Amino acid sequence: MAKLILSFDGKPVKEFELDQEIITIGRKPGNDIQIDNLAVSGTHAKILTILNDSFIEDLNSTNGTLINGQRISKHALHNGEKVIIGKHSLEYVNEAEEAGEGEFEKTMIIRPGANDAPVSSETSKKLEKSIGKIAAELASAGAAGASNQSEAYLELMSGANSGKRMKITKILTTLGRPGIQVAAVTRRPLGFFLIVVDSGSYETRPMVNEKEVGTQAHPLMDSDVIEVAGVKMGFYLE
To answer: DSSP assignment of 122-140, as one string?
Structure first.
C-alpha cells in the first residue's frame, strides 16, 4: 500500500497510509492529514487513490502545491516524489510501482492473441496521464459520493477467461489494451458510464450493444454488452 511521509525541515514527522479513496491535506483539524502551519491553506490539497495509483490536486490554495519545484494543479504521483506544501514535504512511497507492478497494467483486460505490438513507455505514460486527469475530474465532480448506488460487475464473454467476473469497486475501471484501445467504466452519482480514453489503432471505437461510443460518456444499463479492443463483456447490476 502506498503511503506519504510527512517531514519538516528534512526530519520525518509522521507516516500516512493511503488507505482511503480520497484524503485531504490542510491546516484545519477536519483534514485527514493536518499540517498546522500558516503557510498551509485550510483545505490545501487532496489525494485520490484508485487501486495502486494516486493523484494529487491542489484546491486553489494560497501558496500552492509544488512538485519538483513546479506549482501543480493536478498531478499523477510517482514513487519517491516529494510534494511541497508550505514548509513541509510529503514524500510519496509506492514500492509496487518501483517493482513495475502498477495496477494500471494489472487491471487491463488484455486482447487475446500474441501478435500485439509492444507498448512504448511513452504511450503508457500518456495513458496514465489521461486516466489521472479523468480520475481527478471525477473526484472534483463528487463521483466518489456514489457509494450508495447499486453494485455492478463485468463478466467476460469471449476468450480463454470467458465467464470470469470483475466487480466494479472504484470510480474508474480501465478496460482494453494500451496501444490498441482503452476505455473506462466510470462510477458516478447518476449511475455507471463508459468513456473512451484512447480509440487507438483498432478498427472501431469501443461499443455498447454493437453501437460505437462517441466522445460523450455513454450510460450503462443492466445486461449491456461492452466491446473494447475485440473483447466482449457483459455489464450487470446487482
So the answer is: HHHHHHHHHHHHHHHHHHH
Please count the other Cβ atoms lying within 10 Å of the Cβ belonging to residue 235.
21
Q: What is the pLDDT of residues 163-176, one digit of tens each?
A: 888 888 777 788 88
Does the pLDDT value for residue 136 go beyond 90? Answer: no
Give the Cα separation of 157 and 117 in Å (integer). Answer: 24
Question: Could you give the C-alpha distances from 37 to 20, 24, 34, 235, in angstroms and in order?
Answer: 24, 15, 9, 48
Global pTM? 0.53
Task: Please state, in angstroms and rounded to a whole number, the distance separating the CA atoms of residues 51 and 102.
Answer: 9
Scored b (16 or more CB within 10 A) or e, 168-194 reads bebbbbbbbbbbbbbbbbbbbeeebbb
DSSP result, 217-236: PEE--TTEEEEETTEEEEEE
Nearest to 207 by CA among 182, 184, 225, 189: 225
Average of per-residue pLDDT across 69-98: 87
Q: Are 22 and 47 within 8 A, CB to CB?
A: yes
Q: Which of these, 43, 54, 45, lies nearest to 20 by C-alpha position?
A: 54
From residue 72, give the alpha-carbon distance in Å to each of 2, 17, 43, 82, 157: 21, 22, 16, 12, 42
Instruction: Provide the CA 171 distance to its chain's centre, in angstroms.
Output: 8
The H or E element containing residue 55 is: strand 53-58
Closest CA to 28 of 59, 56, 3: 59
CA-CA distance, 110 to 30, in Å (whole number)? 42
